[in-house]
């Protein structure tokens, strides 16, 4: 499959996946979010990780990560969150739920540290043990369809080249985001594991 065909296939899939996610009710999103966060918090990789990056969720579009933030702050874990500036993403330290609440909101309706905000940056201060990955679609084998900007693929490449080595990666998703197969290129990095929620919350 040529690069242009893969790109077009991804574009169509992104549109479909966004439609499926939009079709979830508020209750379904909440139940699935609670379910998948519970799975993550009980996961041995999460439990042994100290320095963790977690995305700040977009309302109505992603598994809600506020429960993960709360758990990290109350259990002595060091939390890093994305800051997107132009084509580059950094992971900057977040200190508390109060710190989270005070973050400005971007044009994408997600919170992130402001440009020029002097915060500890993950790769220059010891690296990461775990990255909790967002995305639009996933296979259970770990293939991932992002939103098209390549932020996480580029960041994982930087991690791989960093002296602290590659962190573990766990994606969290709604059940509707799981696909049997996704179009990928050599630049698309697989995640180690994909956890997904269930509508009934069980």
Automatic annotation (TrEMBL):
Keywords for this protein: ATP-binding, Magnesium, Metal-binding, Nucleotide-binding
GO molecular function: 5-formyltetrahydrofolate cyclo-ligase activity; ATP binding; metal ion binding
GO biological process: folic acid-containing compound biosynthetic process; tetrahydrofolate interconversion
Gene3D superfamilies reported for this sequence: NagB/RpiA/CoA transferase-like
Binding, ATP: 10-14, 144-152
Reactions mediated catalytically: (6S)-5-formyl-5,6,7,8-tetrahydrofolate + ATP = (6R)-5,10-methenyltetrahydrofolate + ADP + phosphate
Gene Ontology cellular-component annotations: mitochondrion
This enzyme's EC code(s): 6.3.3.2
Annotated InterPro entries: FTHF_cligase, FTHF_cligase-like_sf, NagB/RpiA_transferase-like
Pfam short name (any one): 5-FTHF_cyc-lig
Annotated positions binding substrate: 56, 62
Named cofactor requirement(s): Mg(2+)
Family: Belongs to the 5-formyltetrahydrofolate cyclo-ligase family.
Name the UniProt record assigns to this protein: 5-formyltetrahydrofolate cyclo-ligase
């Amino acid at each position: 499959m040529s690069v242009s065909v893969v790109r077009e296939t991804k574009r169509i899939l992104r549109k479909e996946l966004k439609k499926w996610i939009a079709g979830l009710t508020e209750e379904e999103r909440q139940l699935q979010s609670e379910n998948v966060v519970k799975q993550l918090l009980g996961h041995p990789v999460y439990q042994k990780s100290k320095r963790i990056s977690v995305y700040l969720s977009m309302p109505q579009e992603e598994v809600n990560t506020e429960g993960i933030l709360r758990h990290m702050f109350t259990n002595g874990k060091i939390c890093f969150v994305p800051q997107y500036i132009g084509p580059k993403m950094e992971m900057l330290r977040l200190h508390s739920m109060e710190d989270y609440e005070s973050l400005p909101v971007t044009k994408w309706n997600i919170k992130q540290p402001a440009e020029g905000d002097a915060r500890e940056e993950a790769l220059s201060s010891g690296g990461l043990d775990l990255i909790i990955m967002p995305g639009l679609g996933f296979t259970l084998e770990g293939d991932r369809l992002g939103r098209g900007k390549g932020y996480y693929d580029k960041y994982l490449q930087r991690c791989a080249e960093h002296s602290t080595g590659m962190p573990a990666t766990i994606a969290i998703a709604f059940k509707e985001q799981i696909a049997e197969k996704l179009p990928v290129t050599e630049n698309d990095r697989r995640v180690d594991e994909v956890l997904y929620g269930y509508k009934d919350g069980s």
